Amino acid sequence: MTTKTLKVQLVKGLIGTRQDHRATVKGLGLRRVNSIAELQDTPSVRGMINKVSYLVKVVA
């Protein structure tokens, strides 16, 4: 069985954002604007994406 993955891209900079949102973006493995991380599709990852949805975009 193959596990589903999500590709997440950081589309907005982190300056001026809340500290816990910056930590969430770092936890997703995103470093700079336009960086892409491929993550497992789990409820915890979806919750992190939902928390910082104004900063990231799901690519694929």
UniProtKB/TrEMBL annotation:
CDD domains: Ribosomal_L30 (cd01658). One of its GO terms (biological process) is translation. One of its GO terms (cellular component) is cytosolic large ribosomal subunit. GO terms for molecular function: structural constituent of ribosome. SUPFAM superfamilies: Ribosomal protein L30p/L7e (SSF55129). It holds the Pfam family Ribosomal_L30. Residues 6-56 form the Large ribosomal subunit protein uL30-like ferredoxin-like fold domain. Keywords: Ribonucleoprotein, Ribosomal protein. InterPro entries: Ribo_uL30_ferredoxin-like_sf, Ribosomal_uL30_bac-type, Ribosomal_uL30_ferredoxin-like. The keyword Signal does not apply. The keyword Transmembrane helix does not apply. Part of the 50S ribosomal subunit. Belongs to the universal ribosomal protein uL30 family. HAMAP family: Ribosomal_uL30_B (MF_01371_B). This is Large ribosomal subunit protein uL30. It comes from Duganella flavida. The lineage of its organism: Bacteria, Pseudomonadati, Pseudomonadota, Betaproteobacteria, Burkholderiales.
